Amino acid sequence: MNGLRFHLFHPVSGVLLLVLALAGCVRLQPVSLYSGVETEPPPERPRKLSLAVEPVIFQDQTDDTVWFQDDPRCTQGRVTSDVAYEGTHAIEVSWNRTAEGCEWAGFGIGWDGWVGKDLSEVLPYAAIEMYVRSREGIMYGLPIVLTLEDYAGGMGFAYTGNRYFERPFIDETWQRVVVPLADFDLEVEHLDPTNVKQLMFELQQSGSIYVDAIRLVFYEEEEQEPWLVEPPRPDPTALPIVLFDEVFINDDGWGLVTDACQSVEITDATASSGQVALHLRWDLSPETCFEAAMGVSWDQWHPVDMTGIWDRAAIRFDVRLPSGTAARLPLRVGLEDYAWQLSLAEVEARFTPAGAFSADWQTVTIPLTALRGIERARAANPATVGDLPVATRPGADPRNIKQLVVLMAGAGEVYIDHLRLVELD
Length: 425
Fold this sequence. Notes:
The chain has helices at 3-9, 15-22, 376-379; strands spanning 56-58, 66-68, 75-80, 90-96, 106-109, 126-134, 144-150, 155-159, 175-180, 185-189, 196-203, 206-218, 241-244, 253-254, 262-267, 277-283, 292-296, 313-320, 328-337, 342-348, 362-367, 372-374, 401-408, 411-423. Strands 1, 3, 4, 6, 9 and 12 form a 6-stranded antiparallel β-sheet that branches. Strands 13, 15, 16, 18, 21 and 24 form a 6-stranded antiparallel β-sheet that branches. The chain starts with a helix and ends with a strand. The chain is 4% helix and 36% strand. The protein has 3 helices and 24 strands. By secondary structure, the protein is mainly beta. The protein has 2 domains: 3-24 and 45-218, Jelly Rolls (Sandwich); 241-423, Galactose-binding lectin (Jelly Rolls, Sandwich).
């Protein structure tokens, strides 16, 4: 190919000269006027890549099928015999896309003598393989957008991310980089895979590398073995669900802290079942104390849709005072959704068989239908204890429940044990 023909194929050539020079290379494809046809099945894998397309993109050629951007501020490249992965020559390129005035940096290869190449038969089965090394030092990434261009100006793109590397970085040792053709975006710039002109390397940021042995190879995605296999989660609406007995379910409880506002700890001093219980003490009278709370997720922090059990489920737990008796406790128990909305009920003696709280363990059963929407700020306000204010918001969304919460108001001390979600009797 002479120098004139090289310029005709250069990406910045004039449109008229390009059309005249390529008139014999463009393939006309039949186009259906009806777009409602079924999706065509994938093409049959060819026995050899060479039966469908020329697989060698670069291997020692020093002719005008390899071109470089002609602005040395942006790109400096050559085909060199100073170093090679295989054969006698490699591509050497340095670039600085961030230099002033550089709108593009890169080079291209019009392999197979610039003829139009039909990749449609091998798109699902092939990849671009190349060997890359840095000129000096280490590069933690390869900022290159591989671009296939057709003879109508359509393009397909694939970024050479680290997942295509043999190692997590590029250094002065050759390594294989494999980019599947199936990973190219062909739709945005309407690449015609039946009439591919060239492979371009659009260079981003800056760097200096050698590239060699660029070819199409057969490729199949390796089946990935998950490095972390999560066990199947139980149905989060299959009642009963024990949230706390000896420990919190899935270790997903929170609020077990001791500070100036609250102390929530696991104690073995008393228990209604098992060996331990929760000991809650709190005082929100200091101005710096805005909330005392604890909670637990029972589905590993996944949102739970409780619409199917809302009318027949209840929150049940055992509670006792350290001493004395009370008709209600300065506690509110309920559910919170992932929009931070709350549905709560005050812990009143009417939810117990004994009708009063005392130093003996009592079982509290609060139907979900007894929960009411309430603002978080009001939930911790001792002035509202005994008069549950309904917020303007509708409360927790039963379709998007995050966790069970216990909000403490004013000051108090209680023991809680055997916290669970149950079916109503």
